[in-house]
TrEMBL record:
Protein name according to UniProt: Metal transporter
Subcellular location, principal: membrane
NCBIfam families to which the protein is assigned, alphabetical: Nramp_1 (NF037982)
Organism lineage string: Eukaryota, Viridiplantae, Streptophyta, Embryophyta, Tracheophyta
Residues passing through the membrane, by range: 39-62, 82-107, 113-132, 144-162, 182-202, 264-286, 292-312, 333-356, 368-390
Amino acid sequence: MWKRFLAHVGPGFLVSMAYLDPSNLQTDLQAGYSHRYELLWVLLFGFIFVLIIQSLAAKLGIITGRHLAELCTSEYPKYVKYCLWFLAELGVIAATIPGVLGTALAYNMLLHIPFWAGVLICGASTVLLLGLQGYGARKMEFTIAVAMLFMASCFFIELSHVNPPIKEQLEGLFIPRLKGRYAVSDAVALFSVLVVPHNLFLHSSLVLSRKIPSCSKGVKNVLGKSRSTVYGLALLASGQSCTVVTTYSGQYIMQGFSGMRKCIIFLIAPCLTVVPTLVVCSIGGASRVRQLINIAAIILSFVLPFALVPLLKFSSCRTMIGPHKNSTCITRISGILSVVIIGINTYFFCTSFVSWLVDSDLPRFANAIISTLVFPFMAAYIAAVIYLTFRKVSINVALPSRSVSCEIEVEEVQRQDDKDDCLAVNCGV
């Protein structure tokens, strides 16, 4: 039992990094500072939804033997496939931005390294850590697991210092409330950062191998200098791990949509993800960290339906996964929750754009031109989501005739690791 558990637990650490990235930390800190514990219920319901969605992604990969990007390539026409590929890569870059920013801020807090230098160090260390693939996937999973345990230790140290009242936490966790200014927008932000598109591609892929300055100042004021150092260490581990995992997921996305050899993707995908991120973060600088994180969140909200809708369609289709398709109850629950989160993200995207348009210093004619271009674009966006939702799944996937025993599964994992090692050596990784 334990042997099987240890053989399959690695992907869980990689997937869970999406919920401990600097974007989540920044959003949680902001919500906690403004509303204390009143929005904990949003996280509770959000994680319930996340558990359902991620379990569907894992099931899809296990049953079909192919991950989400490969299934999208087989199912949709070429022009749709390329659009989905572009949006998926855009989502990976957007998800990588908070990781790079968090790492650079952590270096600045701990070692007083200039922000731009921290960005470059993060990029270089990401490429080096991705090189662990050359020694097998287990090495990378172990590294991320150690980083997560380190983050957990730092957070428990901070928690013991703050000593939050249990009664207020329980009330915030089980009594939904939206009091105070910006409570709705903060709740939307909390919910939006939980479900990220690249994680759906990543989780369905990994299971196959087994078969902010203002926030930093606030932390210093609340926790003191020594505790802010602990937070800086946790932020460093979070940012670096997040950057590695999102770049890693980009490799699977590129492999699924392009069909290129893995050894080529190992070289191209990190550059495609890390280089644009480094450019954006370097240009934005430390003074615009929060704006960059907000922009990244908007992009992720925009991209999410184009990963979530295919996942729900495929996992609910009998011709795709046969008798393992979602039950009626799961289909309805996941469908309702998906409509809610897509609606929330669309609201978040539209209100953020309108707010930016109102507060911008652009001339009126420029605002009019931008509005003329954007709102038809939003209509096309909604039409694309409707197309993916109501398009009938056409492909059939050959399912395995029998289940595999625990021992054979573990042996298969080891053989897969050996293949990865040989491939990495042959490709010179």
